[in-house]
Design brief:
Order of helices and strands: EEHHHHEHHHHHHHEHHEEEHHEH
Oligomer: single chain
Largest sheet: 6 strands, mixed
Strand content: 5-15%
Number of helices: 16
Radius of gyration: 21 Å
Structural class: alpha/beta
CATH class of one domain: Alpha Beta
Strand order of the largest sheet: 7-4-1-2-3-8
Helix content: 40-55%
Number of strands: 8
Length: 355
């Protein structure tokens, strides 16, 4: 049984400065093991349910949390977490949903060689350090607004913001980094037709990564218990499709290759009050998210630094975090042999249109 919980979900407010990161965490500890790991907190807490947000306010609870996340049972292969830097995630979506359309029309697959990741890193670096940061932030904010509202008025104001940033940039090479975003304007109808209220949410992509991690561990279907999640409930049909309606195939490129179908035996929602295992997932996820949020805002406080030195920080993980890597070698994406995962899913979705 795999238990999931998330931390830092601020809904559509992806630029909330108080919650700059998001984490989805899963583990495979049993009831008895969860009780043992959480025993330092259970011995001092009178609450019917353990929640990190309340516990971290008190020094005694912080000490207990540190004992929990340094417990001898905290092992790399039994915990997986995926952390997303929300502002960088917006930039990734701009690349995936606008930049990619233009390049695809030109016959280019930007996922080969990690060109999508390199572009996102460059945009983030330039937008926050070299260009007019205010104009860059306005562009990011208006992109989120447009994606959520799907209104043509918000679409127009977004492209106006891109143009303002484009004309403020001095060199032609730097302008070329922004040009494909402007060039996506003719695709507006296609973009808006594929509107989905959770299109900017990280939950599904993080969940997929978790499923691939546990599939590599178990090599057979496993059961999932998820703390009540509107997003996972919303995506249940797609998760079912990726579990039961696609053939066995390895897709992707380079270090990002993974296999379908998802090896899910069952997926159920459970209130954390009824599950000590889900409460453990909450404490672990929230501890990590507190640390990553402090890192994103900077500088870290003493409690964050202690979490950063704990056994928990070495658990298996993946991330959507800004970096300086822009070459296939640095991104571990030199192997360009493979199948575009989105093409794979779209092809089989069209073959089974009703599903």
């Amino acid at each position: 049984m795999i238990y999931f919980d998330e931390a830092g979900n601020s809904g559509g407010n992806l630029l909330d400065e108080t919650q700059p990161t998001y984490i989805l965490l899963s583990h495979n500890y049993s009831d008895d093991e969860a009780q043992e790991i959480l025993s330092p907190l259970l011995s001092i807490s009178k609450a019917s349910e353990l929640h990190f947000t309340r516990l971290k306010k008190y020094s005694k609870s912080r000490e207990a949390i540190l004992r929990c996340i340094n417990h001898k049972l905290i092992e790399k292969e039994r915990i997986f977490h995926f952390v997303a830097h929300k502002k960088f995630m917006i930039v990734i979506h701009i690349v995936d949903q606008l930049f990619e359309l233009v390049m695809h029309a030109m016959g280019e697959d930007i996922y080969k060689g990690g060109a999508n990741l390199a572009t996102a890193n460059l945009l983030y670096i330039m937008g926050n350090n070299a260009w007019d940061k205010k104009l860059f932030d306005i562009m990011c904010n208006l992109f989120v607004k447009w994606m959520r509202s799907n209104l043509i008025t918000d679409c127009i104001t977004f492209y106006d913001a891109v143009a303002a940033l484009y004309f403020s940039v001095k060199t032609e090479n730097e302008k070329m980094l922004l040009y494909p975003i402007l060039a996506s304007k003719p695709f507006v109808n296609q973009i808006m037709e594929s509107h989905d209220k959770y299109r900017l949410d990280a939950t599904l992509s993080c969940f997929n990564a978790h499923c691939h991690f546990w599939a590599a561990i178990y090599e057979k279907p496993f059961d999932i218990v998820f703390d009540n999640s509107k997003q996972i409930d919303y995506w249940k049909d797609l998760i079912d499709f990726l579990t039961n309606s696609v053939p066995e195939k390895e897709v992707g490129y380079g270090s990002r290759k993974h296999k379908y179908p998802l090896l899910i035996n069952s997926l159920q929602m459970q209130n954390s009050k009824e599950s000590i295992e889900v409460q453990l997932a909450d404490v672990l996820a929230s501890s990590l998210n507190f640390n990553y949020s402090e890192m994103a805002r900077g500088p870290q406080d003493s409690f964050s630094k202690q979490i950063d030195e704990s056994a928990l920080i070495y658990s298996s993980h993946n991330s959507m975090w800004p970096g300086t890597e822009v070459t296939p070698e640095a991104l571990l994406m030199t192997d360009e042999e493979g199948i575009n995962p989105l093409d794979f899913i779209a092809y089989h979705a069209m073959k089974q249109n009703e599903k």
